Amino acid sequence: MIEAIGLTKRYGRTVAVRDLSFTVRPGRVTGFLGPNGAGKSTTMRMILGLDRPTEGRVLIDGRPYHELRHPMRTVGALLDAKWVHPNRSARNHLRWLARASQLPRARVDEVLAQVGLTTVADKRAGTFSLGMSQRLGIAAALLGDPQVLLFDEPVNGLDPEGILWIRRIMQGLAAEGRTVLVSSHLLSEMAQTAEDLIVIGRGQLISQGTVDAFVNGATETTVLVRSPQAERLVEVLTQWGMSVRITDDDALVISGGSSDQIGEMAATHGVVLHELSPQQGSLEEAFMRLTGHAVEYQSDEVTVS
Amino acid sequence: MTLLAVERIKLFSTRAPVWCIATALVLTIGVTAGLTMLDHAGEGPTPSSTQTMYILGLTVIMVMATLSVTTEYRFGTMRATFQAVSSRSRALLAKATVLAIVAGLVGEVSSFGSWGVAKLIAHSPDTDIHTAAEWRQIAGMGLVYAIAAVLAVAVGALLRQSAAAVAILLVFPLLVEQLVEIIPRVGDRLHDWMPFVAASQFASTADRGLPYGPWGGLAYFAAIAAALLVAALAVVEKRDA
């Protein structure tokens, strides 16, 4: 379990994270979502005690990071797969980490096998592809068999096979009852990986809850209707307080009513319908709606007069 | 002990430190051998004169020590270290200790190696070690190297940048400390209290009119290194990794 309480991080006059509080529960994958520059990495570094919070604190299973005796046996993290000396072999990289956590040397070979790097274990880490570096980073995170795991943008730049592999690893870890926090700016990825979501924008909490609740709560459900008697239908529907938008190809997008209600009303008034389909809002839409005003680096609209 | 083992694994699992150690020894002993051969016509070398090249190896070892910190910052392994070891001070102290031990051993091999190679080449009784001061100079060289390594680790941790740290460690002992003498009125006295001038008082047997003896010089050099290390520990604890 990870608890952030009033986390704030200022760099001079810039506020990277502002009064952020959230809880990450064990036994499920929690997505940490936000646009680039929202403060996800800064928050993760604060959880790991690498950056000092200006205000607030983070507790891991009730204790701050620096009070953990062998931190890597409690928290495993992959913040940046490139945090490896390029001239050191994968095995030696894990060897010194294992030694620092007083883990037996055999554990190094175990995690190397687990991530499928046994055959390249003695190659220099600098020669690794991104996918292999990512596997080495995950091996390091798993080394201490920790109950809490953090991954910062773990699928960035990976091929589909690599993405699937990491997704399975994270879900497997959560299924074992561990706490898994994974950050991403990709909603589609989170929708497939995470059950819980913490959404931040400009360093502030936007929402926390399940992925389903996030989508339902943040998106507007609309109904798409096509009818040769569109004008008559609009008249009826607006009388019942629904709002109607007409698209470029003469379809009606109706909000404020369910497809059942619209169908029944059309039948009552003898209106022919060619199409009647409920439109589920996507996670992307929900995300854009919520964080649209919270994007740090928004491109200015160019107006030509 | 655990942290010392961690830093030992880190130091010797890349090739650069091994090359630095080899370079330090080959340079110091090699140049001493070369000078002894060229000087064949004159008198045999004294134990003291076989030690004048110590600054070559010392410089290389300081570069190795400071890079052992700055490369960790460059490649992010310092963050990995702080993740694995919750006390940053203990991690940095372990690194300073391991580098001091390695540098000390290199210093000993280098000083006795330089003396030995000169003795082999010159075959002169003048090269035999007779006085306590000569023993102190040669056997004590490891201390100078060890302290210099701690100083270099501290400079690396304070600056975090390879280029800046190496530049300072090269330019300060080799140029700045000499140029200080140009300053009117206070230059001479300032020069006497430069850290590497103090170290050289211990690493030679010549009387250069300094206000302290060899052991005083070594203690002063150690105090400077300790002060820098304390500053580095404070800064490393405080700033974001």
From TrEMBL, chain A:
GO terms for molecular function: ATP binding; ATP hydrolysis activity. Gene3D superfamilies: P-loop containing nucleotide triphosphate hydrolases. Residues 2-227 form the ABC transporter domain. This is ABC-2 type transport system ATP-binding protein. It comes from Kutzneria buriramensis. Keywords: ATP-binding, Nucleotide-binding, Transport. PANTHER family: ABC TRANSPORTER, ATP-BINDING PROTEIN. It comes from the Bacteria. It holds the Pfam family ABC_tran. Belongs to the ABC transporter superfamily.
From TrEMBL, chain B:
It comes from the Bacteria. The keyword Membrane applies. The chain crosses the membrane at residues 18-38, 53-71, 92-118, 138-159, 166-186, 218-236. This is ABC-2 type transport system permease protein. It comes from Kutzneria buriramensis. Keywords: Membrane, Transmembrane, Transmembrane helix. The keyword Transcription does not apply.
